[in-house]
Amino acid sequence: MSAEHEVIKGSLSLQDGRVTARLERVTDHSPELVWKMLTDSVHLASWLAPGTLDARTGGRVQLDFGNSGTPIDCRISACEPHRLLAYSWSAGDDPERPLRWELVPEGDGTRLSLTLLLPDDHLVPIACAGWDAHLEMLMAALEGVSIHFPAGRFRAARSYFEQCLKEKLAA
User: Fold this and answer.
1) Closest Cα partner for 70 from 79, 61, 78?
2) Dihedral sign, CA of 64, 19, 142, 134?
3) What is the mean pLDDT of the segment spanning 44-68?
4) Would you give the distance in Å from CA 111 to the centre of its chain?
5) Rg of the Cα atoms in the chain
6) Are 106 and 26 in contact (CB under 8 A)?
7) In this structure, are residues 65 and 49 in contact, taking their beta carbons and an 8 Å threshold?
8) Could you report the per-residue pLDDT of 59-87, keeping only the tens digit for each?
């Protein structure tokens, strides 16, 4: 299936100058395996970026996107193994960009929800599209498949989220 025909899903809401974005995926894999992919340094490198994540409240998150993004260096604000992980997608004095992973058992698998709290600016569609692409990489990694960043899907998702944002701003 080409990137133009892939289903892009996600929701945006506006409140107090911030945008809340929510992305979800359902996988046949257990919350324990999904948690390992979200927190283990070896697995993080396979779908997100090289780095470390100390999976405990107050633990440090350090991710290096190389030339393609800002290095992340922050603290975990909430951690409930196999259920919840929250930290800011920022470093140093950058504005806080909180994100929250929620894992809910669903049958033999897991419903994975990612909620982002973003400044209401022109970067919202890019941030949402980037996370959508990384979620696709995570779903592939759960299947034992390594894929490169899906640029076609990123472009399609960026258009989708630009339209979503326009609709919210017009409402």
Assistant:
1) 61
2) negative
3) 92
4) 14
5) 15
6) yes
7) yes
8) 999 999 877 677 899 999 999 999 999 99
